[in-house]
Amino acid sequence: MRFNLSEWAVRERSLVIYFMIAVIGAGLFAYSRLGRAEDPSFIIKTMVVQAAWPGAGIEDTLQQVTERLERTLQETPNLDFIRSYTRPGLTTIFVNLKGSTTAQEVPDIWYHVRKSVGDMAHTLPRGVIGPGFNDEFGDTFGLIYGFTADGFTHRELRDYVEQARSTLLHVPDVAKIELLGEQDEQIFVEFSMRELANLGINRAALVGALRAQNVVQPSGTIQTGDEKLVIDVTGAFGSEQDIANINFAVGGRMLRLADIATVRRGYADPPRPLFRVNGEPAIGLAIAMREGGDILQLGRNIDAAMAQITAELPVGIEPHLVADQAVTVRSAISEFMESLWQAIAIILAVSFLALGVRAGLMVALTIPLTLAGVFAIMWLLNIDMQRISLGALIIALALMVDDAMTTTDATLGRLAAGEKKEVAAVFAFKTYAFAMLAGTLVTIAGFVPVGFAASSAGEYTFTLFAVVTIALLVSWLVAVIFAPLIGLVILKPPKNAGGEPGRVMRVYRGFLSAALTARWVTIAVTLGLFVVAVLLMPLIPRQFFPSSDRPELLVDLQLPQNASIYATEGAMQRLDDALKGDPDVDRWSAYVGRGAIRFYLPLNAQLPNDFFGQAVVVAKDVEARERLHAKLVKLLADDFPNVVSRVSPLELGPPVGWPIQYRVVGPDLAQVRDIAFKLAEVIAADPLTRTVNYDWIEPAREIRIHVDQDQARLLGLSTETIGSVLNTVVTGAPVTQVRDDIYLVDVVLRATDEQRVSLDTLRTLEVPLPGGQTVPLSQFATFDYAQTYPLVWRRDRLPSLTVQSDIAEGELPETVVQQLTPHIEALAKTLPAGYRIEIGGTVEESASSLASVMAVIPLMLLIMLTVLMFQLRRFSLTFLVVSVAPLGLIGVVLALLVSNRPLGFVAILGVLALIGMIIKNAVILIGQIEAERAAGKSAREAVMDASCARFTPIMLTAVSTVLGMIPIAPTVFWGPMAFAIMGGLLVATLLTLIFLPALYLAAAGRERPAAP
């Protein structure tokens, strides 16, 4: 005899009541300590490897640095692909791991990368700096403050910001803080080459003197019998004035440095990436939370600390809140909790209306018990409250009460038959417990593709599987242990026991009888509807992940790739001017020479580049965001014709960037460019594409100085000497450092401004000779302009040029790509051997993520079939149950077409989960039919009686699920999934109660049907 959990619960009432109290207490405790976040954490499986070779050209850097590093990096375990961009003298390589790489494997792989590159570093050319590694590419800085100053220098502002940073690092849950837009001070020693030559001053001797006086080295230690004395030799520079006062012996007389050069303090030229807030120069503080922290608590702690910091700041320095993930999360959790309470209210209303007050109360009491258990386990498993887990709670809510409704319905039935409460309370376990468990496991199996999809999107949505699994298992335990005990206290025998069935039941019974009589017609019509649904599927728009409903807009400005950071700053200032005074703008921040720091996890972060700028514009609300989007698109098209611009809302899911992307890959750069031009023409010809551009393509000018080596040798000059002189004159060379408080200030030696700005001054540049004389550069060198690539992208060691574009408002990337596919394929057929066109962007990421889900479907089916065979023990019954599962597609297609919602990644996960929900109802119905037949009834009688007996709980669960999803149906992220489940479950439930009985009867044999 099977052990009856419900009977044990009724017998051990005091112990079970204690467990109830403990579960509630644990749930309240866990709820108060659950982490809060905007998005679920997922590992950005990308490492950045960088190496610099100052002075090298693009070709040398590609062949001698990029190529060598890439060959080693291709040996990385679990490598998906390598992507690199190379600039003259600088290599940046992105090492991307496969989506199937687990979070536990990633640190070991990054250690392998460091070790293998370290082992080959000696093979790189002399003079290479690095390689350096950045495996914190995915750090998220959810809180950003920008400090502006009125009446203070940048250095004074930085001092106050550094003090604020030191204070904030003591705040609990702060992991790291980065400064944005800070500029390093430099002391410039500017001289005239001609004047130095006239005075007979050797530049190398000048440099040597500066370094020698400022050197840091031990001067010895005197040990006496009583103490130890350290000898300190003075002379180190403390300020620019100390440098200006240095004396040099020239021709038997002493000259101050200030007499032969201008010494002044300034900031790095060209500047480091800049940061602006509301159109004003600023220094930013970006704050990252430790893993597993509570962003809401961190926000409160930072607010308190910033209030104290602000009170101590002088008038004129003002902090501005640029990004506050805590506010976003607080709002999102508040909205989701409101949706959760609405869903609970809807389900309770359905329960009370359908079951009555007492039965509805019994179902209602199981909800807090189940939720408490779920919260406790979430806390133990470190699952935060965020977008996915909160949505999963709402999706699982109606499924939670399914088993409780079944237990309640069964108990009421036995009470109506006159059984004692203790006997009626344990009847559900004896009759339905294992069918309910099988149905629960089958439903969980439907979410298996979500939990085990080996991709970034799968990792992003993993907590959907985790929370639903926890909720369903806890709900089953609550239904078989706690619910019977609650029923003993609350339930009473129904007053209308044995009365006439209600109107709904009479209508259903009559319709079912007709469907069974014409069962072959019922089966044919159902199959016809399924075929129609399959044919209509192409009409449903496709989408990977929707845009966020946050009010931010990202505005990207990409200038020609040889543009200076000053040009980018000028473009950004013009954008600032346009944003000032706009009634739809709440605030904005701008990054010049780099992209926005990762202020929320799915951001498509950009690395520093002088030609790139990005603004984060926060609109006053979502409606204002849409108005602002249209205004900015027009503004950029009209007033920024030479800038590749893009205005976009924030993304959800793994970061992608430009929605339409095609890569041209091949061995020869020139050929790749030619193919890319043709590809761009094809993309631009489509009426749905906008702003077609390239990740690199345009060449840049460079000045080439051709040295007559023979003449140079006669003069006693070498290429090294000439290059060093040019670098000092034009750019400036750091010769030593001044130690100023916590800063190191470079002392930069360079020519005066008038000698650094034009080709003419280069021609007349006086190059010092070993004998103390000078000679014009033009005497032994000629000048011309040449073209080169400012940067080159590669993918897996082959040049890769990406043609990318935006799309028309309201269109989806998948739709545009579908239109482009025939034209792209026609172009691909004309390509020479070794060249190919690959799709990228949203569609590539979507296909990869969907493939990872599809790869797990066999496991899902295996689990489902195994559970069904254990429960049903017959192939025929298993086939009957499984045959109902695809019918949900009818309702899915209908719901998505009517609501005009796309079939995206999350919606597909909902469709797969729907299979489990449908099969669960079918399992319990088939089990009831078999029980009725075992009692001696004919096939038709058994089908009729079982279907009518299960009609109320099955329909009640379906209606509860459908209505319970109404609160999340309007949301951007969950809406498509909600509509897919609502439509699919409602239609599939009706078909389960009509088509499945007809199919069962058709397969039951030639037994003559009894009269209804």
Your description of this structure?
There is one protein chain. α11 runs parallel beside α13 (387-416), α12 runs antiparallel to α17 (462-490) and α18 (503-517) packs across α33 (975-1003). The chain is 52% helix and 19% strand. A hairpin with a 2-residue loop joins β25 and β26 (743-751). The protein is an alpha+beta fold. It contains 33 helices and 33 strands.
Q: What is the structure about, briefly put?
A:
The protein is of the alpha+beta class. Helix 1 crosses helix 14, helix 12 runs antiparallel to helix 17 and helix 14 runs antiparallel to helix 31.
Q: Name the helicity range.
A: 40-55%
Q: Span from first to last CA?
A: 36 Å
The biggest beta sheet reads: 9 strands, antiparallel
Strand content: 15-25%
**What's the Cα radius of gyration?**
36 Å
Which descriptor suits the 3D outline? elongated
Pick out the low-confidence regions: 1006-1012
Mean pLDDT: 84
Count of helices?
33
Structural class: alpha+beta
Number of strands: 33
